[in-house]
Amino acid sequence: MTGTVSLTIKIDPALKETLKTLALENQISLSQEVSQRLLATLSAPAASDVDSQLVEEEASTQLSSSELKQIRALLKKQKKKK
């Protein structure tokens, strides 16, 4: 038994040509090019905690009064269920 398996997928013809070109440039097979790119993508670190506007979110340590009221209401419901 080998360490690889076959996978058939459908992709845009232009994407296939791009991958073929990249594989030729890297002097590897199309299959190796696709495998390496998938592995690189899947092992990439998670996105940072920055929104799409490149502005870091503020970390708030205090709850607002409305948030406190919501938490109290949830706690009262929990006590009633017991």
The rounded Rg comes to 25 Å
Percent of residues in helical segments? Answer: 40-55%
Separation, N- and C-terminal Cα atoms? 57 Å
**Largest beta sheet, briefly?**
none
Protein model, in words:
This protein is mainly α and 82 residues long. It has three helices and no strands. Helix 1 packs across helix 2. The radius of gyration is 25 Å and the shape is elongated. The termini are far apart.
Describe the secondary structure blueprint for this structure.
Blueprint: H1 13-26, H2 30-42, H3 65-81
Brief synopsis:
The chain is 54% helix and 0% strand. The chain contains three helices and no strands.
Attribute tags:
3 helices; elongated
